[in-house]
Amino acid sequence: MVRNSIGTNNKEIFWGWYVTLGAFAIMIITYGVRYSFGVFVKPMFAEYNWPMTVIQLGSSINIFLYACTSVLAGWLLDRISPKRVMTTGVLLTTVGLILTSFVKTPLGLYFCYGILVGAGSAGCGAVVCSAAVGKWFDRYRGLAIGLATMGIGVGTMLMAPLAGYIIKYYGWRNGFLCVALLMLAVGIFVSQGFMGRGRPEEIGLLPDGEKPNRAQSQSIEPLMPVEKTSLIPVIKTTQFWVIAFCYTCAVMTVMMTFNLQVAYAIQNGIDELKAAAAVGIIGVTGSCGKFCFGWLSDRIRDAKYSASIGLLLMAIGMFLLYHAKTVALLYTFALIYGFGYGSMAPLMPYLLSDRFGRQRLGAAYGLLIFFASGFGGGFGPLLGGYIYDKTGSYDFGWLICMMTLLIVALYILTLKPKAP
Questions:
Q1: Spatial separation of the C-alpha atoms in residues 363 and 357, rounded to whole Å
Q2: Distance CA 5, CA 26 (A)
Q3: CB 353 within 8 A of CB 135
Q4: pLDDT in tens, 128-138
């Protein structure tokens, strides 16, 4: 009965596509919240007159906790249903956002937004969503992950301008309350409705919805032992460390850019809502990039070439941001940078799954996020805030980002192909 209702034939839709839809929806909210933090920076800075480094430390703690908890979330995803992991993450994130709306001290910001929201978002973030999707596909893995991660761009497109509007007319505290309610409503609906099953073998199918023959049916159960999720084969290879280094550096530049670009634009005389709209443009082009790079990765010899192109486009975008003193140039930066940035979300899990297999994708992706977001993402906002406090300018930070992206765009090409 179960196989007939969610199996694959001419009339029915493979359940993996429902998982993809659920991951898309939940990432709209999760990453809309994360990447709209930069919109909250200026009003918090104006109300409390805290040094920029103090405010950015809250974001860095958030990212570091997200990275650390992602290791646990990825490990759990290889063992229990995504529904349980996501529901826990949604509830913890909601509580953290509500409490953040009441903070009056840096310590309160660090605990509520940094620790609670950071740890909670790992349970409903890219590791859980992308790995949950990747476990259902082989031939269409790039397309499916690309479609799911488009939610990151859509969330950025919608949430940053929405948060900017609420903050301008109702204050930043009400902004946090509104995104908390959205997180709770969407997150619970998606996790309970779409994420109850973990992989196709649980319903007697193969990846991509293929029906097994008799010999394959007998081998489905052995595909799921715990020992296959060991990370030892992963961390012993240079392939993983090349991927980890490149994306640690890339995420460092992303978080510095997202957290400071709005304040940078306002400093250059650009209106608050127009500055926030640039983040939304990145969301739009980022969604296009996620789909295009995911689609491309299914069709070229090695996905590392897709990764290199994406990183190079981000470097070009940073060059434009360095010169962005007008709205037109700011939006041009957002168009190009956003499309290149869109490569990261589908390519990170794709490269891992392609080289280490989908059975250990959750744990491997969690470990990658630990390094990329924990070290790179946590360091980026702090570095940008420190540079601004010392120089009163963001320009040197943008140059660092540009050079870093150029280096990793070349270094990712040294990644060895998967073993036969």
A1: 11
A2: 24
A3: no
A4: 888 888 888 88
Q: Is 151 helix (H, G, I), strand (E, B) or coil?
A: helix
Q: Is the dihedral of CA 307, 385, 278, 163 positive or negative?
A: positive
- The CATH code that applies to domain 12-414 is 1.20.1250.20
For 146-198, how does the pLDDT look when each residue is reduced to its tens digit (9 = 90+)?
888 888 878 877 887 788 888 888 888 888 888 889 889 988 998 888 887 77
d(CA 58, CA 40): 12
Q: Could you report the per-residue pLDDT of 32-68, keeping only the tens digit for each?
A: 887 777 778 778 777 777 777 787 788 878 888 888 8
Phi-psi sector, 209: left (phi>0), alpha (psi -120 to 50), beta: left
pLDDT at 418: 66
CA 143 to chain centre: 16
- Output the six-digit token pair for 81: 């249903």
Q: Which amino acid is at 369?
A: I
DSSP 1-46: -HHHHHS-SSSS--HHHHHHHHHHHHHHHHHHHHHTHHHHHHHHHH
Least confident of 62-76, 86-100, 150-164, 296-310: 150-164
Measure the CA–CA gap between 45 and 260, rounded to whole angstroms. Answer: 12
- Give the C-alpha separation, 306 to 314, whole Å: 13
- Farthest-apart Cα atoms in the chain, separation: 69
Are 101 and 180 in contact by the 8 Å Cβ rule? The answer is yes
Closest CA to 66 of 7, 124, 129, 14: 124
DSSP codes of every residue in 276-338: HHHHHHHHHHHHHHHHHHHHHHTTSS-THHHHHHHHHHHHHHHHHHHT--SHHHHHHHHHHHH
